[in-house]
Design a protein that fits this description.
The chain is α/β, with parallel strands linked by helices. 46% of the residues lie in helices and 9% in strands.
Length: 211
């Protein structure tokens, strides 16, 4: 049991004016940490061209534009108050093209590159920024059934490793197996081979779409 207070706020992060609804709720709070951990991707994970354009645009609004708005507003606030931290939850999908989640992977790459750029701009301030690039994480067990269980991390160790590295690193890949997997994809095979491996052996098999 943790001695914390929670203030839930229902918002549609896909709306361009959602910050107008959010900021009145946070104006009187002593904020010191922003964690951008929201995401949207279709549960059915269709191929890119099989999904409608409205879904792709909604993903862009929620996974990219909402991150941008949150980090820009609260980043300015943290710099002005001379303290604060920002954790941007990206994904291992940001490193390579990822079949069946093409728009999601592209959104995550945007988050990662935005975070890396902002980390440099903030490194001489009192605001710490960390990018989290996890692999498969057991946030919804029903969606993990098709994957090799050795590749799926539980939430608690991901959170622990993330918080331990805030203020120490600019990016964290949680878990030994994730570190080894991403190293192999980046350094032990060509980029094309890595994309094929992700599409067939990871996403294809995990989602039951291996042809």
């Amino acid at each position: 049991v943790y001695n914390v207070q929670v203030k839930p706020i229902a918002l549609d992060l896909g709306r361009p004016d959602f910050m107008d609804d959010l900021t009145p709720h946070t104006a009187d709070l002593d904020l010191g940490l922003l964690i951008c951990n929201h995401m949207f991707t279709p549960k059915e994970t269709p191929k890119f061209l099989d999904d409608d354009i409205e879904t792709h645009l909604a993903m862009l609004d929620i996974n990219a534009r909402a991150y941008l708005r949150l980090v820009h507003f609260y980043g300015r606030q943290f710099v002005a108050q001379n303290r604060g931290g920002i954790i941007m939850v990206s994904s291992g999908a940001a490193f390579h093209g990822t079949a069946y989640t093409a728009s999601y992977a592209a959104n995550k790459a945007y988050q990662m590159i935005l975070g890396e750029s902002l980390w440099y701009e903030l490194k001489d301030t009192a605001v710490d920024l960390l990018i989290l690039t996890p692999g498969l994480t057991n946030t919804h067990p029903e969606g993990m059934a098709g994957y090799d269980p050795r590749m799926v991390m539980e939430v608690a160790p991901v959170v622990t490793e993330t918080l331990e590295n805030l203020g120490r690193k600019h990016m964290v890949v949680p878990g030994r197996l994730n570190k080894l997997t991403f190293f192999a994809l980046d350094h032990l095979m060509s980029r094309r081979r890595a994309i094929e491996t992700i599409g067939k052996s990871i996403m294809g098999q995990g989602l039951g779409k291996d042809e």
